[in-house]
Amino acid sequence: MTDIRLEVTADGSHTLVNTALEESYHAFNGALTESLYVYIDSGLCALAEHTQEVRILEVGFGTGLNVLLTLQKARELGLRVHYTSLEPYPVAEALLAHLNYPAQLASLYPAAPLADDFAAIHQAPWDAPVKLNGDFVLHKRNLGLESLPVAAAAANLIYFDGFAPSKQPELWGADNCRKCFALLDVPGLLVTYCANGQFKRDLRAAGFRVQPHPGALGRREMTRAWKD
Fold first, then answer.
1. pTM score, two decimals?
2. What pairing do the DSSP bridges indicate for beta strands 129-133 and 4-8?
3. Per-residue pLDDT tens listing for the chain (228 residues)
4. Please, which residues bridge with residue 134 across strands?
5. Which residues fall within 8 angstroms of residue 105, CB to CB, at 6 or more apart?
6. Residue pair 198/155 in contact by the 8 Å Cβ criterion
């Protein structure tokens, strides 16, 4: 079994490190800061300018941080969300219980039941949709993107949050770029921390409009790609 260790990032929030790949689940410069910027501010909030009905496909459930952040922002903005998250290799629950995201988010969302939300996210069964509240449905799926059947207009927002192309090159390939384009409705948006040149070229070849966008935490760029 792959060893996973817990580490504290620069903003005080936790990440996990896959020691077989020597790859972290989030930026060491700040797990929480990175996820808020890339997936919430640059993704969810950008799409919410077009619709109140958000259908998210997340490639890489990981620690569940993006789900927790999306649930809080969706409440704040009054969004209706169906959130499908793919994860072929779920992290052990015993380790997830030590993650400090509810405490780290308390100042941002002081009235939210953060600990209860985070527990509900991880207690939700795999491969079955579960209502976290009346306007937010979570469907965790124990599979990878390559195994997901293509259903046209299945999502209007994709969080592409896998390990880096140097560690998982097959995930970032042209076939998956075409699959993501097929899965998205119009308008549809894909966001990721990654700004790999070949990945962006493959997105354009698949039909996306790739928008230059500043990266988080001093990174020059991230990727934001529209289907329109």
1. 0.96
2. unpaired
3. 468 999 999 999 999 999 988 999 999 999 999 999 999 999 999 999 999 999 999 999 999 999 999 999 999 999 999 999 999 999 998 899 999 999 999 999 999 999 999 999 999 999 999 999 989 999 999 999 999 999 867 999 999 999 999 999 999 999 999 999 999 999 999 999 999 999 999 999 999 999 889 999 888 999 999 999
4. none
5. 32, 68, 69, 72, 112, 114
6. no
